UniProtKB/TrEMBL annotation:
This is Glycolate oxidase. It comes from Aureimonas pseudogalii. The lineage of its organism: Bacteria, Pseudomonadati, Pseudomonadota, Alphaproteobacteria, Hyphomicrobiales. GO terms for molecular function: (S)-2-hydroxy-acid oxidase activity; FAD binding. Residues 50-228 form the FAD-binding PCMH-type domain. It comes from the Bacteria.
Length: 497
């Protein structure tokens, strides 16, 4: 499955000098980067198999500058790719050769912490972990916690609707964002939501969350902050097979227990993470669950006993409960470091992202094992087991002939498997370019046209992040056209307006 980007416009490339000069007039000083060597740092995101230098990089500092840049680019029909911290794993912020890369990293201030209303107002360049750091002194935190939370920005979290290990109980980004300010391609500044619990009218805030930079550029975010629970304890549970671990996950949820987090790792991931972090993981098991319970102490103690009983009934061979907050955090440190840890056992890897019904976990794990044999490539599994969000890490060596292609084909088959059992192509990493050409596995042509109509309502010239998400780029004017066959319109008896 070869991934390609839109063919660059020679006309735009020929105007590069004029475009750079115009952008420098909007963002003076060091806010425009056009030297080839200096743009190298922006040529890729966390999907590092693909690289492309942008036409020019611009780093605005004010909303007015963002509005002016977008307005200028729309008037002159120049594509724009918004970018946060560049941690996207789906190629969502991959630049375009004929496009402006709009980097929001200078929007990095926490504007307000409102403990009375349990919210914080921040700029999109603030890191995910930075929000928790700003409120933890008062006993609060921001719930969504992607593994990259030390680096990923809240604006990027909104673009991809990011999750994390604690999203089973507390929700994804969309469940924790109360309001945003964003700029349209026309340069109009719009506010949605705010500190209040809900907004009137259509749920445009929900539409913007997870829109992957295709509808507008977020410049301010109001997030919900939560009070830290009284008690939180985690238990490490080892199993002789991944299938038994999957059955345990389903049994815990079926019992009505909703853990604060429930993660699963298979043998390759366990060994890699333990060698990297030394968290005390058991090395004689095929699968490991990390289950965290939080709330009042009496409730946590009761639920821990329930979970241990369920685990034993499903064949668990080991269980270790954290005895201190430091030990609990060490359990999670290994899980959160699993991605870089796997980088120590393989020269390269592709981190996939699909979501399935929990009951299908054993079937999908068996299917991935068969695909691993088919393609002759290893796979390490690290995923949010509680909500069925899988993150298989496909191991390959890009320096070896055709291994990247085999890895991509392997990943595509994993995602097809997810869809075939009633799942979806992505849980939190987005579609980007990685899954763009698989969208037809899940949506038919009518579905995709309706999605593109939404895009057209916000960006009728398709200038915001083109080449991402949609497998075929339709012009807005093409949508809804009637097909004429042998001179006859379809349904000729219907009146035409």
């Amino acid at each position: 499955m070869a991934i390609s980007m839109p063919k660059p416009s020679g006309e735009i490339l020929g105007r590069r000098a004029a475009i750079v000069e115009a952008l420098r007039s909007i963002v003076p000083g060091e806010g425009v980067v056009d030297a080839t060597n200096e743009m190298r740092v922006f040529e890729t995101d966390a999907l590092t198999a693909y690289r492309q230098l942008p036409l020019v990089v611009v780093l605005p500092e004010t909303v007015a500058q963002v509005a002016a840049i977008l307005s200028y680019c729309r008037e002159h029909r120049i594509p724009v790719v918004p970018r946060g911290s560049g941690t996207s794993l789906s190629g969502g912020s991959l630049p375009l050769e004929d496009g402006v890369l709009l980097v929001l990293s200078r929007f990095n201030r926490i504007l307000e912490v409102d403990l009375d209303n349990r919210c914080a107002v921040v700029q999109p360049g603030v890191t995910n972990l930075g929000i928790t750091r700003a409120v933890e002194h008062a006993g609060f935190y921001y719930a969504p916690d992607p593994s990259s939370q030390i680096a990923c920005s809240i604006g990027g979290n909104i673009a991809e609707n990011s999750g994390g290990v604690h999203c089973l109980k507390y929700g994804l980004t969309t469940n924790n964002v109360l309001g945003i300010e964003f700029v349209t391609m026309e340069g109009e500044v719009i506010r949605l939501g705010g500190k209040h619990l809900d907004s009137e009218g259509y749920d445009l805030l929900g539409l913007m969350t997870g829109s992957e930079g295709l509808l507008g550029v977020v410049t301010e975010v109001t997030v919900r902050i939560l009070q830290a629970p009284e008690t939180a304890r985690a238990v490490l549970i080892g199993f002789p097979t991944s299938e038994q671990a999957g059955e345990c996950v389903a049994a815990i949820i079926a019992k009505g227990i909703i853990p604060g987090g429930m993660e699963m790792m298979d043998r390759p991931a366990i060994h890699a993470a333990e060698a990297f972090v030394h968290a005390g993981y058991p090395l004689d098991v095929e699968a490991l669950l990390i289950v965290e319970l939080d709330g009042p102490k009496a409730e946590v103690d009761h639920l821990l006993a329930e979970v241990e009983a369920i685990a034993t009934a499903n064949g668990a061979t080991t269980a270790r409960v954290s005895q201190s907050d430091e030990e609990r955090m060490s359990f999670w440190a290994g899980r959160k470091a699993a991605f870089p840890a796997v980088g120590r056992i393989s020269p390269d890897y592709l981190c996939m992202d699909g979501t399935i019904p929990r009951k299908e976990l054993p079937r999908v794990l068996a299917g991935m094992k068969a695909l691993s044999h088919k393609y002759g490539l290893g796979v390490a599994n690290v995923f949010h087991a509680g909500d069925g969000n899988l993150h298989p890490l496909i191991l390959y060596d890009a320096s070896k002939h055709d291994e990247l292609q085999r890895a991509e084909d392997f990943g595509a088959d994993i995602l097809r498997l997810c869809v075939s059992v009633g799942g979806v192509l992505t849980g939190e990493h987005g579609v980007g370019i990685e899954k763009r050409d698989l969208m037809t596995e899940m949506f038919d042509e009518d579905d995709l046209k309706h999605q593109i109509r939404v895009k057209c309502a916000f960006d009728d010239r398709h200038l915001l992040n083109p080449g991402k998400v949609f497998p075929v780029l339709h012009r807005c004017a093409e949508l809804g056209r009637l097909h004429v066959h042998r001179g006859q319109l379809p349904f000729p008896e219907l009146p035409r307006f």
